[in-house]
Amino acid sequence: MSYRFLASVYDWVAPKFSRYRSPELLTSKVLGLAPNSCELLDVGVGTGLSIAPYFSSSRFKHIVGIDPSSKMLARCRRKFTNIQLYEGTLDTVQFHLNSPFDIIQSCGAVEHVSDFPAFIRQVASLLKPGGYFVFTFEPVILFSKRQASNAPHIGTLGLENVFRRKPHDVHTILADNGFSIFEDLEFKAYLGFIHHLVVAQSGMGGDGVLDDALPNESTQRSARKSSAHQHRHAAHGPAERER
Fold it and tell me: How far does Cα 79 stand from its chain's mean position?
């Protein structure tokens, strides 16, 4: 089942059947970062699971969503009328966007992006200086049949392309484009699959390592653990494993 076939059942299957945790974790981070009058872009908005909590907050001035599936967008539009939606990918619609944004987020979509460096350059060009990119990605895991680089994407029964990456490579590409990485949280996203949640800030002159200058004490502790984990397990990249 590709996403166009999942659209009609996605809002039930994702949270109820597969126990998909990524939207809840990502939105909790964004709610802690969003400034007043926040302008937010969601890349891969789908049916809107990753933006639902924002509509009960007064801090969000403008929310824009992008998704290549017209059926997923149709369901999102029915649930949230006060949102601007575009059908396509970031590459195809970026010139129609009234950027810059305070926050760009992407939940469960980066693993379907073939050219990650180009994607990050596009994200960087659409963010305000000091803006945040908050996203999840599916890593390559050594000796894992389900998360090897060439393993099929289970969520769509192998019908959607998946591009898994090493956390170190993700961090390097972010740093090369001027991002400072505040947090990389490793967690079980659904059905035992490991994903990462990354919080990165643009235009801060970072070197790609996890910073000490973090938004709050909880994130600071997480990042310091992640930095220590990097030295202990360099082969797996820097990440804090969620307990």
Answer: 21
pLDDT in tens, 139-168: 999 888 887 888 776 655 556 788 999 999
Measured CA to CA, the distance from residue 232 to residue 7 in angstroms comes to: 41
User: Given a cut of 80, is residue 10 above it in pLDDT?
Assistant: no
Backbone φ, ψ for residue 127 (5° rounding): -95, 145
DSSP label at 165? B
Q: How many CA atoms lie within 13 A of 86 on its CB side?
A: 18
Residues 2, 157: Cα–Cα separation, whole Å? 8
Going by DSSP bridges, is the β-strand pair 127-137/179-190 parallel, antiparallel, or unpaired?
unpaired
Helix then strand then coil, % of the chain, to nearest 5: 40, 25, 35
Do 222 and 185 touch, CB atoms closer than 8 A?
yes
Angle in degrees, 0-180, between the axes of helices 167-176 and 116-126, rounded to the nearest 10: 40
Place of tokens 């235009």: 203
Residue pointed to by tokens 């000796």: 143
* Contact (CB, 8 A) for 179 and 117: no
Give start and end residues of each alpha helix (H) in the chain.
3-6, 10-12, 22-33, 70-79, 90-93, 116-126, 167-176, 217-232
